[in-house]
Amino acid sequence: MLTVFKPVAEKPLKPIANLLKSVNPNVISLLGLLFPVIFFLCILNKLYVLGLFVFIFNLVDLLDGMVARMSGKVTAFGGFLDSTIDRFADFTVIAAFGFAYIVHWDIIAPLILLTYLISYMRSRTELAAKGKLSASVGIIERTERLVLIFVGLLVYTIFPKTSVMGQNLMAIMCLALIVLSVITVAQRVVFAYQKLD
What we know:
The longest helix has 27 residues, at 169-195. This protein has a two-stranded antiparallel ribbon. The chain has one domain: Up-down Bundle (Four Helix Bundle (Hemerythrin (Met), subunit A)). By secondary structure, it is mostly helical. It has ten helices and two strands, in the order H-H-H-H-H-H-H-H-H-E-E-H. A hairpin with a 2-residue loop joins strand 1 (163-164) and strand 2 (167-168). It starts with 5 loop residues before the first helix and ends with a helix.
């Protein structure tokens, strides 16, 4: 859904991408490993405001692709590396709330599973279609998930003691993400059924 706004998000990053044209895009991708780890440490140490600030730097994830396109260095390995680092970042960001005892693992574990499943279903569908089909369908993708996690942490930071049916606001957001993810999985199954032989 929010993927359609990607060009808008990239616009302010263009001057930075232009400065980095001589840098190997894969190096920029690898630098993207730092911010999820720093975010993880911030959450573990209850530095939520700093964690929110660090979370914004996930925009670095857009830079590698921009630099690759601007410098003519788009490669299949670059796409593979970027996608692999995204999965590491997804786990690290979501698991942080479990390890910090903010959200119970019985909520975190299914959310991580569904997050990986959504990504796998897209890549498997596109592979089966031999590159002739984009399977970027469904109510929630990575961009939406990251935005909602950011919003959830922001609200939890402001109202840490507020709870709904015994769950804090970050847990409520994770539960909402689980529901949206289940819907997305169903949408991708239907899409694959309709489009693949």
